[in-house]
Write a structure and sequence with these properties.
This protein has 322 residues and is α/β, with parallel strands linked by helices. It has helices spanning 43-55, 74-82, 99-109, 123-130, 135-148, 168-177, 203-214, 278-283, 288-303, 317-320; strands at residues 10-14, 60-64, 89-94, 113-117, 153-159, 180-186, 217-219, 230-234, 240-244, 257-260, 265-267, 276-277. It binds S-adenosylmethionine.
């Protein structure tokens, strides 16, 4: 009989599939309609599911989307989640557009840290990647997050060969004078049908580029234990540089994440079509025990995965929650 893994302790919680940017790699076919608002879990429903996930072993929760900061009750949601006993790490991933104006309120509500996506340091390239010209707002958001102590601040950059390879050196340089971790993420095809092979850049190549600009990198401790990133530091730098290489060296056996979509589907893996309808079950009046059994099934299913399932035709990070 398959043993259930006991190290699955991380929940990626998509709080909305709405987003105020249109990153070219995130929702490639732009084909799925948005979730009906009535189907999206309320703050109380989310908290109930999270509490049960915590009973099932989850200790770390990251809010994502879509763009979590466009959810109108996001601060109240953070406050409620922060009150759940057993959560040791509460974080949020954002594109940073609304961060400057919300950072203090989020911190006060109990958020511990943020990851900010930033794929370019040059305005035109930022616009090509995201469809928006509001690059300066993201930088303001990063500054504000640092100022209010939403730390460690991590900057996530997805590198695409034909779009932003030219930005790698400047992005890496941000780690010299700021106490941030700049992390390069390998482009991960959201489904076999939409794999842009011309976009993919292995992180080995990104690292060579960084080193040709900043000099040799030395290993640095991880900012958070148990994640998939490997960290390094350029000489004399205040911050670090991380590499998340999900495509060139998959980390399925170490992956500790469950994902919950904004309408309450629990997914054991980003790349897997299998999902468990926690939201539907919850709204049918199910008991905590029935919900715990379903969460247990998802945990069992995840324990079987040892490599990426590449048979999915297409999914969108925006809908599943990146
Ligand atoms: N709106 C927020 C943001 O921009 O950070 C949160 C949602 S976004 C889907 C979360 C993360 O997924 C981002 O760091 C983004 O770069 C990453 N992501 C989205 N599509 C990806 C892809 N095809 N390959 C690798 N990372 C991807």
């Amino acid at each position: 009989m398959l043993m259930r893994r006991t190290d699955i302790d991380y929940l990626r919680l998509s709080v909305t599939d709405r987003c105020n940017l249109h990153c070219i790699y995130c929702n490639p076919l732009d084909q799925q309609g948005l979730t009906d608002r009535a189907a999206m879990l309320s703050t109380d429903e989310i908290c109930r599911v999270v509490r049960l996930c915590v009973e099932s072993g989850v200790a770390r929760v990251r809010l994502t989307g879509g763009e979590p900061l466009v959810r109108s009750d996001i601060v109240a949601l953070v406050r409620k989640l922060a009150g759940i006993k057993g959560i040791t790490d509460l974080s949020l991933t954002t594109n940073g557009i609304l961060l400057a104006s919300m950072a203090q309120a989020l911190k006060d509500a109990g958020l511990q840290r943020v990851n900010v996506s930033l794929d370019a340091t040059e305005g035109q390239c930022f616009r090509r990647m995201t469809g928006s010209g509001e690059f300066a707002r993201v930088l303001d958001g990063i500054q504000k997050a640092l100022a209010v102590g939403l730390a460690p601040v991590r900057i996530n950059c997805v590198v695409l060969r034909t779009a932003n390879l030219s930005q790698v050196a400047n992005l890496a340089e941000m780690s010299l004078h700021r106490p941030v971790s700049v992390r390069f993420i390998e482009y991960c095809p959201p489904g076999a049908k939409v794999d842009r092979k011309d976009w993919y850049v292995p992180n080995e190549e990104v690292r060579r580029l960084v080193e040709s600009h900043l000099g040799p990198l030395s290993p640095a401790p991880a900012t958070q234990a148990g994640g998939p990133a490997l960290y390094f530091r350029a000489r004399g730098a205040l911050g670090t540089i991380g590499f998340i290489s999900g495509r060139s060296s998959t980390f399925c056996r170490r992956c500790s994440r469950l994902r919950l979509t904004c309408d309450g589907r629990l997914r054991p893996c980003l790349h897997c079509a299998k999902q468990y309808g926690l939201g539907t079950l919850l709204r049918s009046g199910a008991s905590d025990n029935a919900l715990l059994i379903l969460i247990g099934r998802a945990l069992h299913e995840k324990s079987r995965y040892t490599k990426l399932d590449t048979t999915l035709e297409c999914f969108s990070m925006q809908h599943v929650g990146g």
